[in-house]
From TrEMBL:
<dbReference type="Pfam" id="PF06114">
    <property type="entry name" value="Peptidase_M78"/>
</dbReference>
<feature type="domain" description="IrrE N-terminal-like">
    <location>
        <begin position="21"/>
        <end position="54"/>
    </location>
</feature>
<protein>
    <recommendedName>
        <fullName>IrrE N-terminal-like domain-containing protein</fullName>
    </recommendedName>
</protein>
<dbReference type="InterPro" id="IPR010359">
    <property type="entry name" value="IrrE_HExxH"/>
</dbReference>
Length: 57
């Protein structure tokens, strides 16, 4: 699954979020300024969203 950093997209869609799972595109967008720990936590959280979307199908 593609993972990218795109602060402009996050600011437009979810200004308070550190990341988002884009279910239609099946990709994850993260903030560029996250620490390594913050990136790992946010990526884990967004991957959980991906898995939940798969289970619900």
């Amino acid at each position: 699954m593609p993972v990218s950093e795109d602060d402009a997209e996050l600011d437009r869609l979810f200004p308070d979020a550190n990341g988002v799972y884009m279910s239609r595109e099946k990709r994850i967008v993260l903030r560029s300024a996250l620490s390594a720990d913050g990136r790992a936590r946010t990526l884990t959280h967004e991957l959980a969203h991906h898995l939940l979307h798969r289970i619900r199908r």
